[in-house]
Amino acid sequence: MESAALPRPKQLPLRQDASGRLDGSAIRHLEFFARLDDSACGEIARESQIAHIRKGGALFAQGEMPRRLFLILNGRSKATRVMSEGSRIVVRFLGPGDLAGYVGIFDDRAYTTTALAVTDIIALCWSRQAFFALMARYPALAVAVIRGIGRFLEEADARLGEAATQRVERRIAHAILRLVRQAGRRVDGGIEISFPITRRDIALMAGTNLYTVSRMLSGWEQRGVVDGGRQHLVLRDPHALVRIAEEE
After folding, report:
1. Residues 41, 27 contacting (CB under 8 angstroms)
2. For residue 58, what are the β-bridge partners?
3. N or C: at which end does the chain have fewer Cβ atoms within 10 angstroms?
4. How far apart are CA 187 and CA 3, in angstroms?
5. Domain residues of the chain, as ranges?
6. Three-state DSSP state, 63
7. Which CATH architecture has domain 167-246?
8. Buried b (16+ CB within 10 A) or exposed e, 120-153
9. 227-247 b/e (C-beta count within 10 Å ≥ 16 → b)
10. Sign (positive/negative) of CA torsion 65, 71, 73, 77?
11. pTM of this prediction?
12. Distance CA 149, CA 49 (A)
């Protein structure tokens, strides 16, 4: 498993034409659109609307019928789900280049998660009809969506396997390593998760409780593996955490 953080997408200014529509530079730099040419990116951007969501706000809520599909340009969102017995889980975190709300759009059923902004967010959004028309016009866009769904299913399958077979220390280590891969940035002495993350969030990702996560993180802090505070976490020794995640 790679312990280094992935490069973060560039955050470019949003250029608009005289009518206020975006040009393709708003999305061209994102990996999601790497297989589309400049002309396609230009039309896809022009068909979008810009959404600004303040920290703590919601892109959409569990149980609502879908009206729009979102693509995050800047900022981070947390997708949570309330289960039938009333417990809450963190399904995933989303950042620049991630689609949000596409499952409900494609099968015309209510959102199964609530997407909360953990930082201020700038996102593009399209109506269902507009995005379907764009996928029909640009097959590479449909392929990008399928790839995104595939990555989500692969991650969900990995988490299900972890929950079924791994002891809690390994699950917590895997949860932190996923966050590092998604949003890690190098700082002096380690890799910092670049958005506010709480111990409760990590517990909900790992399928455990706050007490267990606090106990584990405190022990790892004493060993120099991680360093953290309120809504802040730095991975000091990536190789040590990978060993914890992978040891039988």
Report:
1. yes
2. 116
3. C
4. 14
5. 25-161, 167-246
6. coil
7. Orthogonal Bundle (1.10)
8. ebbbbbbbbebbeebbeebeebeebbeebeeebe
9. bbeeeebbbbbbebbbebbee
10. positive
11. 0.77
12. 23
